[in-house]
Prior knowledge:
This protein is α/β, with parallel strands linked by helices. The chain has eight helices and five strands, in the order E-H-E-H-E-H-H-E-H-H-H-E-H. It has a five-stranded mixed beta sheet, with helices on both faces. Helix 1 links the parallel strand 1 and strand 2 (44-48). It is globular and about 45 Å long. The N and C termini lie far apart (51 Å).
Amino acid sequence: MPRKLNRRPPSRNIAQKILIACEGSKTEPIYFNSIRNELRSPTLDIIVLPHQNRTDPRSIIERLIEERQQRKDNQQWSKEDKTWAVFDGDEHIEKSLANWQSAINRAISQKINLAITNPCFELWYLIHFQDHFAQITRDRLVNLLEKHIPDYDKSMCLYPKPLKSLTEQAIQRAEKMAKQIERNELSEHSNPCCSGLPKLKNS
C-alpha cells in the first residue's frame, strides 16, 4: 500500500500587512480588495476590514486601534505593518470641526495613516481621467465621473480596468491638489483633496 504523503500546504512569508478600514461599505472596499486580488503578492497582505456601519472618522480609527491590538496580542503584528483609515471629509467637517480635529489628532497620536477624500472617494476615481481643482459637490462629482464611466455605480469594480493604467496620473493630480491647498493656505483636507491616497497606493 503506497504511503500517504502528508505534505504541508505552501506557506507565505508575509513581509508586511496593510490593515485598512473604510467609511464606505462598497466603493472603497471593492477598490482595495480588487488591488489585493490583482497584486497576488506572496509577501504583502492587504486586509480590508469588514464594514460595521460605523462611518464617523473616530469610530473607524478606534476600530483600527482595536484590531491592531488584537493582532499584537496574538503575535500577528510586526513593526513593518501599517494601518490606514479611509474616509470622506465633507459632511464630517461640516457637522463638527471639533470632532473632526479630535479624530485626526487621535489617528496621529496612534500612528494611524489617513487617506481622506473631500468631498468623497469618487474624486479619486475622477482624477484618474482629468485634473480638478475647484470646490465640488458629490452630485456634480458623479456627473463629471459619468463622462468617463457611463452609468457609474458605487458597486462597480474599476480596478484593474480602467483605473490601473491611469494610476500614476491620478497620483500626480492628487499631489497637485495638495500643492494648491498649501499655496492657498487652506486646511489640509479642504474640498477638493485626495490626501494620503497616493502614499497608500504606493505602499
